[in-house]
Protein: Guanosine-3',5'-bis(Diphosphate) 3'-pyrophosphohydrolase
Organism: Zoogloea ramigera
Amino acid sequence: MDSAAPVPFSGGGVSRPPASSVLPLDFGQLRALVAGYLRPEDLGRIEAAYHFAADAHTGQLRKSGEPYISHPVAVAEILAGWHLDSQALCAALLHDVMEDTHITKAEIAERFGRVTAELVDGVSKLDKIEFQSHEEAQAENFRKMLLAMASDLRVILIKLADRLHNMRTLDHMRPDKRRRIARETQEIHAPIANRLGLNAIYRELQELAFKHRYPLRFRVLSKAILAARGNRREVVGKILAAIEERLPQWNIEAEVWGREKHLYSIYRKMTEKRLSFSQVLDIYGFRVVVPDVQTCYRALGALHGLYKPVPGKFKDYIAIPKGNGYQSLHTTLIGPFGTPVEVQIRTPEMNHVAESGVASHWLYKEDEKTLTELQHKTHSWLQSLLELQSTSGDSSEFLEHVKVDLFPGEVYAFTPKGKIFALPRGATVVDFAYAVHTDVGNRCVAGRINGELMPLRTELHNGDQIEIITAAHASPNPAWLSYVRTGKARAQIRHFLKNAQQEEASTLGERLLNQALRPHGLTLGQVSTFAWDRLLREVTLATRRELMTDIGLGRRLPAIVARRLAEIQDTESGRADVVKPKPAGAILIRGTEGVAVQLARCCRPIPGDPIVGIIRKGQGLEVHMHDCPQARKLRSERDRWIDVEWEPASDRLFDVTLRVLTQNVRGVLGKVANAIAEQNCNIQNVSTDGEQGTYTSLNITVQVTHRLHLAKVVRGVRNIPEVVRITRLKADQKAG
């Protein structure tokens, strides 16, 4: 997983310098770190893994010219700082041997155990698989890594330590590769570290990614901060002294220190909030660590007595922890000279978790209550990854869903019973419904926010109480995908729509094939089991349903399938006589079909219009008006044309856009609207092309049930004296 990969020969392989040029690496620092908390036998296993990895990587160099083994040792040292166990440390030392050497997973399992081998495999890349693009390969790498993480959290800890050391040594890579790796780190690795509560790594990854992705901006900001630091020292000292004097007056023991702002944090505030450098730097940050939770709230009172708090800037993450287990009180005060002072108040245990997140499970085992809650939240998120995987179509889609959820949520909403759900900013009622349960999301029709009935696309705010209203026959709408914010909601909606498409396509496929069989004197019920089985073998499909779905989606032409079925049936029955063709009959179109039957957007047919059907590959049956220019372009593909007719009774409303040219006089729009309303017709939208001298062109979208209804509307509008011309506007016509 090393971004600074071994240097290849021009003919492939790995460069191997003379043995004398490779200096032996000191294993002492790692040994000292591990000896402080592991047993002697564990230390022996780690040393054996070190020698095994050193032998496997013999002669390989990093881009920096260092022996390659220096990278796995550095990764293991980072993990040893978290007090990870011997299995994880062995896996860290071995994490590149499967990828860069001849060593196999079976050999690792034999020497160091199955668990270590699984950890190494979870971290290893998928270089041996052919992918269409670098993006697809990366998506599959992350999918594998995240799913391995769901079964063993140590996989992601090794991966993050690996990426951290690579980022620390990225200077030796080409500028374009540095930018690509930095962007990847910023979009994936840093958010994962944040989601797992690994704040120290999260901040360092952000800083390093910023440095390599935007090197010029990084240098400019670095110089500006160095220049401003001396001027800040006096203010920081004054505030620190005041806080340290006030807390003992309230009998509060505390550690207090100023927090240095990170470069990337300053840059992000400047860009997101459109602040100048001086405005961002004029905010001073302090951290107060006190013995217990009760004292946190007492310290808050003491500080609010020292400096006035800024209204609306207090956040209680102790009562309602963040999704990654982070707990702290946040408040903003007006300090001396009117400068804003941001203060975080927490206990030592909260401070441990804030810095080390899930790694606290290994590092600080004494805080069982906090860690149990943290592990529960992490486990819930990891389970949601498995659920996303089961509903995502491919690796890229899976990664897209995960990336949505990686960025921290700031909206906390409640059920009527008081259960809290943390959601990302901009989350809607639909996101909340899917957070409660997939079935609730699939059947939701509206929501009550704080007792008031609101539409599904309404964005939620902190503290909102949400009651989801469901209906037994409701189902997800494709339009929801345009405003949902959580990966779970997006994945479940797509999954439902995909299944619905398969259902509808299968039903349509049966109708199309039955129609295509009629000229051969057959119906679906008359086709023998032998004919079906033979045909399915020929087309390499397992079931008739799969075949019907393929036909419904336009992947197979019904005429060709019907012809082959008839041939097999004739051969089996020994029929030599010529079957008298029967009329095929037309497919009836209701206009209420879903994704498998679509009314073409280029001509927007409505009941009563003469229509034709065309099977579009992967899209199903598309219905056009018979004189549609788009349909005429496909006349040569006769096998794809299907006879279709409108079903006699249809209660659906169809959108039709009318272009009305009127005299430019006052009140004409009202007259047109009244004429349309008199025909029991609803107006969906009105727009104008602007005034053209003495005339105005109106584009009015109305809802009608059929062509006769439209004719009445047109006749009513045409009778208005000020109307010069009225025409039906097709979607492919320009509005001008």
